[in-house]
Amino acid sequence: MHISNEYLYEEDKKNYLPTFKRFPLAFIKGKGSRLWDADGKEYIDMLAGIAVNNLGHCHPKVVGAVQDQAAVLMHISNFFVSPPQVAVSKLLVDLTGLKHVFLTNSGAESVEGAIKIARKYASTHNKGGEIISMKNSFHGRTLATIATGQKKYQQGFAPIPEGFSQVAFNDIDALQAAINENTAAVILEPIQGEGGIIPAEKKYLQQGRGLCDRNNVLLIFDEIQCGVGRTGKIFAKEHFGIQPDIMTLAKGLGGGVPIGAFLCNEKVGNAIDFGDHGTTFGGNPLASAAALATLKAIHEEGLVERALQKGNWIIKTIESWKTKHPMIRGVRGMGLMIGIVLDRPAAPLVKALLDDGIIVNGTAESVIRLVPPLNIPDEDVDTVLGKLERLIESIEQNEKK
Q1: Closest Cα to residue 18, out of 9, 6, 26, 27?
Q2: With a threshold of 0.90, does the pTM exceed it?
Q3: pLDDT range class, residue 153, cuts 50, 70, 90
Q4: Which of 79, 102, 178, 205 has the least C-beta neighbours within 10 A?
Q5: Has residue 1 got a pLDDT over 80?
Q6: Which position among 37, 61, 127, 138 bears the catalytic label?
Q7: What domains lie within the chain, and their CATH numbers?
Q8: At what angle do helices 378-400 and 303-321 cross, to 10 degrees?
Q9: Would you call 13 a catalytic residue per the annotation?
Q10: 216: enclosing H helix or E strand
Q11: Of these residues, 61, 251, 310, 380, which one is catalytic?
């Protein structure tokens, strides 16, 4: 019996909690920037599992590391140490310039940990524990992380945890007005992802860093989506020349294997005592081996630089369309984290591209998000740009009739 897209989609609906509005597709194989569904159709993946597969699908170095580690040791608990965890921890500390790392299972868990250690630091300095986040931000789906995020994700889940407030992004006056003696930390994405691929302004981050320093408030950077080479720097903070007190990672860190991390500087680490935090699976040997292989491959293959070059190419190409395609309002982003701003909802174009074998997604209602593998071949980028422009031309021509 052929296991088709339709069969798998219908079986999924019988059993899986209906929290995802899925496309009626089941993918069964991936290689590089390509995916194949259960009916054998091939796709170019410009979404990369939502900025997770920075090395594409089934990169041989990650596959080899996972296979080798799985045959030796997968899990031991954090009562003990393992060579892969020691190695990836040292590498992350070296790459970030921060002092301590804690390995997690996901981005939401990383943000939860960042909030906890920020509040612990504040308590040791007799400060309140309020966390200020940015409007249109996204930091996860747990109760604490939705308290930092968009209101639409909070509906139906009251009571929402207390001690959280929001201000407008890139508005230093609003941030200054919000900081008070009860403020423990400010958390923000250097580039908002779900908010529509909106980069922070360099001056804003510099002034924000100064505000935090003067008020003994911690600055947390959420680099879960924009980190690990995605923006043309190994971490987006390098574009701005700003060092946060705490930084969160996940998504691209494991090459497709679930792993996250939060890192902090020495003053924050000094506030932590034994037993203040923990995790069962975080940083296990298998996930740590995958992360170590991912970080090494990104460096060895020069993918950070390639992400910057390819991103500039895509952005300049789409910018050049604006004069002839009024549907395009703009394009923004850094490296291979790109948002195409439309004058209409993005969902119909996302569906049309999917039908044409191109995987993208829509965010912030009217933005097409492109976050492909960092090693996507030039010919695939060229194909995607060609199909996207032809789709836009077709829609605009039909509207003129």
Answers
A1: 9
A2: yes
A3: very high
A4: 79
A5: no
A6: 138
A7: 5-59+302-400 (3.90.1150.10), 73-300 (3.40.640.10)
A8: 20
A9: no
A10: none
A11: 251
